[in-house]
């Protein structure tokens, strides 16, 4: 309560939080009014029509079509309102803006680590700029975790061997607590972190002040040398498909339905390449699951950066390569 919000909800501190709260309050008050109405009707009818004389036989009661129609139409309208409203909010929560700043988030027992597009890594706080949409690409090193920031009204599972994503835009400079909301072992309750929202200028200064590690895209480019014999990045056709227009484009595969390539698809193509074979190519690529997690994430970031549909936060090491979808 007080500084931390109402008796039920913490302060709404992201652009979409008020919309989530408005839907919550609508459902709450609609349910409260319906509950009070049903209880009041029960009390009223139980009092008015109670049997006062043991010998009293009440007149037969006949149904009312108008009452029955009201009980059908009314709840149906409420359900349609909640469904339409909820679907709209759900789509917004799961559709990051094209100019979102991408940060990789990794959960492990029992901490969170954050990797920025320029290679900066943080194992303490997630520092983000106020007034700028931020997309988090989540994964896990061990077991299932869940990334939850109450003030932003966001929650997303971090799953081993695949990627999930969530986005937000902080509306004020402050520090917000991050919780893991999926039981992950004995120290689960201590798996917390902070989101520190600062101004854009402070954020850029913070990035410059950090120890600079090799960015994921550059690490992926270095690791890609062992892949270059089979995969081109300029649209050329080699043993395997070209990779300059993969991320964000639809891929035709022989053993599954067509799909739009995302981080999960790229990762699977590295660790289990025969799971989905691109049409027109033979299943000859070996698995690279022996690579460490950092290298795999770097390769995913590099392949993603080659596409003209990569998030704006990616620094494309292959920006000079052809971006034509025809290279698929």
Primary descriptors:
328 residues, alpha+beta, Helix Hairpins, Immunoglobulin-like, Cytochrome Bc1 Complex, Chain D, domain 2, 3 domains, 5-stranded mixed sheet, 18% strand
Question: Brief description of this entry?
Answer:
The protein has 6 helices and 12 strands. The protein has 328 residues and is of the alpha+beta class. α1 runs antiparallel to α2 (65-93) and α5 packs across α6.
Descriptive account of the structure:
With 328 residues, the protein is α+β, with helices and mostly antiparallel strands. It has three domains: 2-93, Orthogonal Bundle (Helix Hairpins); 101-209, Cupredoxins -  blue copper proteins (Immunoglobulin-like), CATH 2.60.40.420; 216-327, Cytochrome c-like domain (Cytochrome Bc1 Complex, Chain D, domain 2). 31% of the residues lie in helices and 18% in strands. The protein is built from six helices and twelve strands. It has helices at 17-48, 65-93, 200-209, 216-223, 263-271, 293-305; strands at residues 101-108, 111-115, 121-122, 125-129, 134-140, 145-149, 154-158, 164-168, 174-180, 192-198, 250-251, 259-260. A five-stranded mixed β-sheet has the order 3-2-1-5-8, with no helix packed on it. Strand 1 and strand 2 (111-115) form a beta hairpin. Helix 1 packs antiparallel against helix 2 and helix 5 (263-271) packs across helix 6 (293-305). The protein is elongated, with a radius of gyration of 27 Å. Mean pLDDT is 84; it is low at 316-328.
């Amino acid at each position: 309560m007080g500084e931390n919000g109402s008796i039920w909800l913490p302060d709404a501190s992201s652009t979409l939080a008020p919309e989530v709260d408005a839907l919550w309050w609508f459902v709450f008050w609609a349910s409260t009014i319906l509950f009070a109405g049903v209880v009041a009707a029960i009390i009223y009818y139980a009092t008015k029509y109670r049997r006062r004389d043991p010998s009293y036989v009440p007149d037969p009661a006949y149904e009312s079509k108008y009452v029955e129609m009201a009980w059908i139409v009314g709840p149906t309208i409420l359900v349609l309102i909640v469904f339409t409203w909820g679907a709209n909010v759900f789509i917004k929560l799961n559709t990051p803006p094209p100019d979102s700043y991408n940060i990789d988030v990794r959960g492990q027992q029992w901490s969170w680590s954050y990797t920025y597009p320029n290679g900066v890594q943080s194992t303490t706080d997630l520092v983000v700029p106020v007034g700028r949409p931020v997309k988090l690409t989540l994964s896990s090193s061990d077991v299932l975790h869940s990334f939850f920031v109450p003030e932003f009204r966001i929650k997303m599972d971090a799953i081993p061997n695949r990627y999930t994503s969530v986005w937000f835009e902080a509306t004020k400079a402050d520090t917000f607590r991050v919780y893991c909301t999926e039981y992950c072992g004995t120290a689960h309750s201590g798996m917390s972190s902070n989101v520190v929202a600062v101004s854009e200028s402070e954020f850029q200064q913070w990035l410059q002040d950090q120890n600079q590690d090799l960015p994921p895209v550059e690490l992926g480019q270095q690791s890609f040398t062992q892949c270059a014999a089979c995969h081109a990045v300029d649209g050329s056709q080699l043993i395997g498909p070209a990779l300059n227009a993969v991320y964000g484009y639809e891929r035709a595969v022989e053993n599954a339905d067509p799909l739009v390539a995302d981080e999960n698809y790229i990762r699977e193509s590295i660790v289990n390449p025969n799971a989905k074979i691109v049409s027109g190519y033979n299943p000859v690529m070996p698995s690279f699951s022996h690579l460490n997690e950092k290298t795999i994430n770097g390769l995913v970031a590099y392949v993603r950066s080659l596409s003209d549909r990569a998030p704006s936060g990616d620094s494309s090491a292959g920006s000079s390569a052809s971006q034509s979808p025809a290279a698929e």
